[in-house]
Structures are given as structure tokens and as C-alpha cells.
Amino acid sequence: MQSTLGTRNMFFAAITLLFLISVAAESTLQNSCPTEVLKKVNAFYLQVHDGICFHFVTNEKRTHSDASRECRHYDGLLAMPKTKSINDFLTTKATTVYGVSDPMWIGLHDRINEKEFVWEDNTKLVWGNFKKGNGPGNNIFQGSFEDCVVIHPSDGGLWGDDQCERDIISIISGSKPKKKYICQYTLDIVNNTVNDAIKNKDPKVKDQQDVDQQDTDQQAVDQQDVDQQDTDQQM
Fold first, then answer.
1. Per-residue pLDDT tens for 16-25?
2. Which of 54, 125, 190, 209 ranks highest by number of CB atoms within 10 Å?
3. Separation between Cα atoms, residue 64 and residue 106, nearest integer Å
4. Band of pLDDT at residue 28, cut at 50, 70 and 90
């Protein structure tokens, strides 16, 4: 009997723990992902790391430009793993959660100047994770046709050069420039906090709003008095 009760208690404890984890995850998504993204994207494909909301697009493939355009549709960018921590996070989630083994687009390229890699937010590359013979170490001929970068989840998150679009070169070589991709979104935490407080009618925020409104009203009244005095003097 005691054994049965113990098993039941463990079962209910496990269910409770899973519920709490689910609630915490939902709260994290709510605080880190844009509202429009939460409305349109299945929460299963959203992950948060260091305050950045990542969307793993694993059910469709696009060229680099089209993938970038899709991310920007919700004011996002292709994922920018500028640190090992972020790169490891993306690699782990891609393989263990989504079972992705093929390469995925990230927001890095050298389209403007060969071997000068820049991120989608126009910042220069500092930390890199390129495979040998890729990136700045790529040969001139091959590199001139491969200006966009992919992350290889099945290869420990190493990066590789690839052709950005489907062109005559990709047709001849048989390469496939359409790939899965990862978007990232970053919210203004300060504005979110204020908006949430207003939404929840935080007394402190509401009081400050009342003070600001009173100041504005008083300034308007004072200006009217000044204008009226000027008019009376002119008459």
C-alpha cells in the first residue's frame, strides 16, 4: 500500500514539475518574443537565450535573401551567434529539440567585400566558428560564389560558406541554396516593463501618468493666461 502511495506521489510531483516548467517557459516567451511572433508562430519553435527570442524555421526552406526577408517581416533578423554561448545554444536546440542535421542559414555574409564578413545588423565579425577552408580562409575562386553562411548542427555548430541564391552556378554544380533557417528577435525590455505596468494598472506608473497629465494641463492654462494678458494689453 505504501509503495502504491509513494508511486502516486512521485507521479503527481512529476506532473506538477512539468506544469511549472511549462508556465515558466511560457512566461519567458511572453517577455522575450514580439506579440506578432507569438500570434503567428507555434511556441514549440521558439526558444529564448540571453533575452533573445529565436525562431527555428524547420518546416520550410528558403534562399538566404528570402529567409532574411521573412525574419524582417516581424522586425527580426537572421540569427547572429556572435558568441560561443549562443552558437552552442542554437546547435543544441537544433539537434536535440528539432532533430535538424542539415545546414541552416544564419545572419552572416561577405556579399559587399570578399572575406570581410558582417552580421545582419552591420556589425563586423569578431568571434567566428568556421570550418577549415571556409570563411576568411576560403579560396578566392570558391569564395566569390559563396557569400552567405550556414551553421552545421550535425557538425558541432561549425559554420560554412554557401551560395546565397539559386543562380547558374548553383544549377551547374547541383547545390541547393534553399535551406532551413533561424530568426532572432530582441525586445525593448524597458518599454515592455512600462507597458505591462500600464496594462496591469500599476499604481506607481498610474500616479506618475496623473502627475505628468496635471503638469501638461497646468502649462496649458498658464499659457492661455499669458496669451490673454498680451491681448488685453494690446487693446
1. 433 333 433 4
2. 54
3. 8
4. confident
The set of long-range contacts for 118-122, using a CB threshold of 8 Å and a minimum separation of 24, is 119/80, 119/82, 120/68, 120/77, 120/78, 120/80, 121/77, 121/80
CB 93 within 8 A of CB 87: no
Cβ atoms 166, 177 nearer than 8 A: yes
Position 7 scores a pLDDT of 59
Determine the Cα–Cα distance for residues 160 and 132; give it in Å rounded to an integer: 9
- Cβ-proximal residues to 112 (8 Å cutoff; 6+ apart), any chain: 118
Q: Rounded to whole angstroms, what are the CA distances from 40 to 37, 45, 69, 86, 154?
A: 5, 11, 16, 24, 28
**DSSP symbol at 74:** T
Residue ranges covered by each domain of the chain = 33-187
92-119 residue pLDDT tens: 999 999 999 999 999 999 989 988 999 9
CA distances from 79 to 68, 88, 95, 148, 175 (A): 9, 13, 16, 13, 23
Residue with cell 560564389: 145
Residue 110: what are its φ and ψ, rounded to 5°?
Answer: -130, 45
- Rounded to two decimals, what is the model's pTM? 0.68
* Residue 76 contacts residue 55 (beta carbons within 8 Å): yes
Domain 33-187, second-level architecture:
Roll (3.10)
